[in-house]
Amino acid sequence: MNARFVKGKGHIKNMIFEGYGIQIRPVTPSDLPALRRWRNSPNISQQMADISHITPTKQRLWYERIINRLEEAHWVVWCKGVRTGYMNLKGHDSIYSQKSLNGGLYVGDSKVKHGLLGYAIAFMQLDIAFKFLFSIKYETSFRESNLSARRFNKQLGYLEVSRKDGFIRVAITHESYNNSKARLIRYFK
Prior knowledge:
About 30% of the residues lie in helices and about 30% in strands. It contains six helices and nine strands; from the N terminus they run βββαααβββαβαββα. The protein has a nine-stranded mixed sheet with strand order 1-2-3-4-5-6-7-9-8, with helices on both faces.
């Protein structure tokens, strides 16, 4: 099982993908209230570098900033027709020309929430980074105190790169991802 392109044209940020029981769609203005609600929830906001409260104005300004960026792509995750999470991919320049990408994801509070949802989103994110954007490495970071993120990333095959200001930075290569995915994919069949 892999992520597969469903529809869209132009930049990858305008494309819809599905696989692993989820679909990701580009962020639209109608998604902003849910994204803001999730982002302001204590279990998500306390894990972010910026823990400040997101106002409707701040959320709208974020959206207006990201919609034209060529070095970023932001999607809302849907499962069983329900908006249920968020993921992004970022580079330092055009997302298409990056040997290394970074980004993040979170599972929102919705009526469709299960233990494999985070893995499905991570698989989707890494499939796009490695198979559609041909990146060599993907990096992300999480708070040192977030033991579940530490366990999650280790199971996915990430290796620690650095620690700074209470955050652990981890990286994964395409090869390492394929090895870890081979062990975990049975849960999605």
